[in-house]
TrEMBL record:
GO terms for molecular function: DNA binding; DNA-binding transcription factor activity. It comes from the Bacteria. Residues 1-46, 70-124 form the HTH cro/C1-type domain. This is HTH cro/C1-type domain-containing protein. PANTHER family: HTH-TYPE TRANSCRIPTIONAL REGULATOR, METHYLPHOSPHONATE SYNTHASE. It comes from Paraburkholderia phytofirmans OLGA172. The keyword Iron does not apply. Residues 1-21 are annotated as: Disordered. InterPro entries: Cro/C1-type_HTH (IPR001387), Lambda_DNA-bd_dom_sf (IPR010982), TransReg_Diox_bact_type (IPR050807). GO terms for cellular component: cytosol.
Length: 148
């Protein structure tokens, strides 16, 4: 596929596609999702230079995967949002917003968070386990009911 075709089909500018291919840009994950969707590859394969994903393609936006995996790894390590924010050089509110999928992180933001957690970026992009999202939704519903 040509850069022009990819740009047209993904609604990402050709200069942006060129810069990404050359490693000269710091794209947002929403942009990477658009490119991955057109190329029919998992976001993990796109980020890891074509290494096959450990599971079948997950069509969920990368932000959802990043948010859940950051929270899961952070909790497993017993690291607070505050500690992670200091170690990754982000505001604490940024880490909280990332875990709630409020922000659209750049590649370098997620790399910094992965480094601070001591994992590779591919760990934060792993597809979610079946049922993980449903469990999160149940927690959200319970929390909302308690607040009302």
């Amino acid at each position: 596929m040509t850069q022009d075709a990819l740009a047209r089909m993904s609604s990402v500018s050709r200069p942006s596609i060129t810069a990404m291919e050359r490693g000269k840009s710091n794209p947002r994950f929403a942009t990477l999702d658009q490119v991955a969707r057109v190329l029919d590859v998992d976001i993990l394969e796109l980020i890891t230079s074509g290494l096959p994903a450990s599971a079948s393609a997950d069509n969920r936006p990368s932000l959802e995967r990043i948010a859940r995996n950051v929270n899961k790894v952070r909790a497993a390590l017993g690291v607070s949002q505050e500690t992670l924010s200091v170690q990754s050089r982000h505001f604490r509110t940024y880490v909280g917003n990332l875990e709630r999928q409020v922000v659209n992180p750049s590649l370098s933001d997620v790399e910094a968070i992965a480094f601070a957690l001591g994992v590779g970026i591919e760990t934060l992009l792993q597809p979610l386990e079946p049922g993980e999202l449903e469990v999160d939704m149940q927690r959200l519903v319970r929390k909302t009911r308690k607040e009302t």
